[in-house]
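re the bet — no i am not wrong, look at it urself. input seq straight from the record:
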Amino acid sequence: MGSLRPLNYLALVFGFLCWSANAPGQFARPTVDPAAADRGAKIYGGSCAKCHGADTRGTATGADLVRSTVVLHDRLNSLHGAELAAVLETGPNHHFKYDQEKLFDLSQFLVQSVNKTLRSGYSNQPTDLLNGDAKAGEAYFAGAGGCVKCHSVTGDLAGIGKRYSPAILQQKFLFPNSGPRFSRTGPPVQKMQVTVTLSSGKALSGSLIYIDDFAVSLRDDKGIYQSFARGEGLKVRTVDPYAAHVALLDRYTDTDIHNLTTYLETLK
């Protein structure tokens, strides 16, 4: 159900591309209506489980729905089945037409399945991280990946292969803003930057602390906290220091990721 982009599902699952209204960088926490999920489980069991598996993780004839971008968009953005409808009606081997209530129930069951996977995981330890081609990874680093625009193997990345395990190494280039959760070493995570321009034309810049539709706050380079009500005349511009990494999430293939991990691991 839906095309699969390797590793993009992690970005969708953990909200790397989504700013919660509660705090910058906080990922979404989709909730589930248990009664609706139970009804959705019956719909799934009758129409979908044969191909996609009782656990929604796929079979030889049907895709893993936990990794489906359609399902994950639906979960992250609380679409309640809005994107599922077209796939169910027109997708390969799909001939199901459900009303909005049944789409909601099916959506809730699938969200529940993703949430369960996040708690239990596919396996306890990552495997086969270094089965790529180091030479191809080097070419990607210098070419299509554009890594050399910001990084140097004799500068900031010198010896990185001996500083981190392959799992942490891969995590760092896929999701660099999550570094402190995995290692106490290395450079600190850079914060989202923001510039607030007042109606008078005065501009104030600093590290973003909070932002939603009604307010924005920052801490400037002197450590002073400032907060502003968002309204007519106030302009807000944010700059993500990891924008290049975010852009790559939509372009990586599994092969690119494994090749790049294998290459970086050789930088001892």
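see?? The CA atoms of residues 21 and 212 lie 5 Å apart. told u. also The chain has three domains: 8-120, 134-188+244-265, 193-239. so pay up
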